[in-house]
Amino acid sequence: ICLGMQLLFDRSAEAGGVDCLGMIDGEITAMETGDLPRVHMGWNQLNCEKTDPLLDDVSSGDYAYFVHSYSAPVSDYTLASSAYGDSFSAVVRRGNVYGCQFHPERSGATGAKILANFLKVSI
What we know:
Elements: E1 9-12, E2 18-19, E3 24-30, E4 40-45, E5 47-48, E6 63-68, E7 70-71, E8 78-84, E9 86-94, E10 97-100, H1 108-121
């Protein structure tokens, strides 16, 4: 699991546009938040898009703690999404590379489940 999962993607619009690690296809863009504050900070619900061992015992509607203003679009790599203004990827996977947009260590029981699941899939 990578905090700052945006680093895993091809490119990010942050800091005027930078190349990233390119482990997951896609570009990180500024969030479209409408009338909401630009920085998404706080608890928000997950929507499980796909079944994956990382999300065992995690359900749509479970809460995670987010702090970000840039995001990855929902794509074929999205395991779970969330919405703040527009929908965005909250958990992604490509092969054995996983990323969480939220902070699992601050996400209570949901984050603890995901961290425990990561230990299981990494063995």
